Amino acid sequence: MTTLTHSIDAPDETRPFQAHGHLDVVTIDDFTLGRAVFEPGWKWSEDVRPIAGTDSCQTAHKGFCLSGHMTVRMDDGTELHMGPGDVVTIDPGHDAWVEGDEDCVFLDTGVAAYAKPA
To answer: What pTM was estimated for this model as a whole?
Structure first.
């Protein structure tokens, strides 16, 4: 078995959001990891919907919140709140936004197609 490393601080790709943050992406073989930096004021429906071209986020996310706080509202109206140390899974069909005045930094394995033009 070969062990490979790649620093998230030197990403393969950086995908900017409309106005509030960016996504750094590293891919090793068939594994993709993203580090999203959602700045205060970030909201999926304003910062990513114009890129994705869908009414709500259609990406499944599995990840870990490093810092900051975010609220996720599913299309059915249910909400989840995440903060530092939370491990979350989020099904497709949601909006989300940063809570407070701190960047929400999130490591996410569901980013292969996230924030890429449709």
So the answer is: 0.94
